[in-house]
Predict the structure.
Amino acid sequence: MSESSVSKRVQKHRDALRAAGLRPIQIWVPDSRREGFEDECRRQAALVAQSDSVDPSISDWMDEVASEIDGWTA
């Protein structure tokens, strides 16, 4: 398959998405593979756990979600 046919197919797909009312966006997120990422997550979680100002409903939700992440590690 030639480069131009791939480009045309991709452009056709993008045009169809735009016609459906969608637009492309780019999102930058922290790189979870980066050295120190896990340590920073633990540090921030510990700060939240020690806080007296955490809404109990948020804390309950975090506990619930945390039990659903088995197998998420890279």
